[in-house]
Amino acid sequence: MKRTIALATIALAVIPMSAQRTLSLQDCRDMALENNKQIQISKLQTNVARNVHQAAKTKYLPHVDGLGGYQHFSKEISLLNDGQKSVLNNLGTTATGSLTDQMSGILSGLISQGLLTPDAAAQLGQQISQMSPAMENAGNNIGRSITDAFRSNTKNVYAGSIMVTQPIYMGGAITAANRMAQLGEDLAANDVEARRQNVLYSVDNAYWLVVSLHNKKQTAQDYLGLAQKLDDDVAKMLKEGVATRSDKLRVDVSVNTTEMTISQLESGISVAKMALCELCGLPIKSDITLVDEGQKGIITKYNITDVPDTTYYGRPELSMIQNTIDMSKQATKLIRSLYLPHIGLTGGFTEMNPNLFNGFRKTFCGVWNVGIVLQVPIWNWGEGKYKVRASKGITQIAELQLADARDKIHLQVEQAQFQMHDAETRYQTACKNMASAVENLRCANIGFKEGVMTVTDVMNAQTAWQTAESQKIDAEIAIKIAQAAYQKAIGRF
Q: Which among 199, 225, 258, 286 could disulfide-bond with 282, CB atoms 3.0 to 4.6 Å apart, if both were Cys?
């Protein structure tokens, strides 16, 4: 039983320790970069842009397409028209009738010339008449056989082909499209970098805000200890009759006000940690402790030098605008290419049934083909000219935006440098004020014990000490935030 209780006690003691996390500034930065949704979206956009670029590269290569089909016709494909078929089908009838008419004329001529007697001509005509049906049938049969020979018997047509197309000259469109795709990939990468720097800057600000509030809370607690000590001393003096009720009430008010301030600071710390946890991708109610909470001497020496203009040309925002300018120029080339001649090479192999190249035989046959395609725009009412002008106008706008962004970034750098110098000055002054406040409080406490200084004097000294300590904390945090702002301004976060 005792063993079980001991194990349970150990478990309860371990659980809160394991639940709490101690994070450094670098830890917060790393988690934010890993978990930030906007950065993840930008990385996915980079992958999209990379695939678009790879797709654009394929435009240089030949494209192979397959085509297959089947067609059923309600009528047979015919090489002869209806008139030609009628003539051929009645070839014997037409020929026999024409022959009979010709023989009648000939016999009449022979009779008139006395070469034949009417009886002989009649007998000969009768013989020809007897032969006509056979000749007519024979001629019609020959005509129908010719008609049948020209039949295709093709109500069903099957075809399949493989076509290869190779662009030779597209007016520079393929090169421009590839360059735009490459610039799109660069733009996405610069967007990732811009978001990365923004996230780091936000994390730094949230981190130092928590540290600032925690240190101010610690200062308020120290002040509360001084006020409570004074409250106890005044209470004793009140019993001894050497202090007034008013003195006791003023100290009580100071104690209550400090306790309220501590409560407000605790609420502020909770809210600030929620914001930091959200940036880091942690549950917003995570129990975290920051390494720099309550630490003294968090200021590191930072050398402030004048930065030449070229230093912050690497800002991702400037690179993104430059990408936009370059893409606009390539877009102009792409538009211009639409109104230039296009040349392409084509080739392929086709299998079809019936065989068109061998009397419409119902067998598959294959045929190769190769050709060249030339497209030349002739007249478009100046459409291309106006579109090119519009595209050049967009480029000029982007170039002005780049110049404006450079001016604004130059201002940011100058302001960040000024803020760092100002924070450093404030910190030096705060350190001096803190030393004076500590000495003043020491003297006030000694004077109060010796009876030469009043409760009010001690309270004023305590307030001055708390104010000086808070100002020192503000100056320390201001230096940290100014350093972060400077790093971001020059694009070296």
A: 286
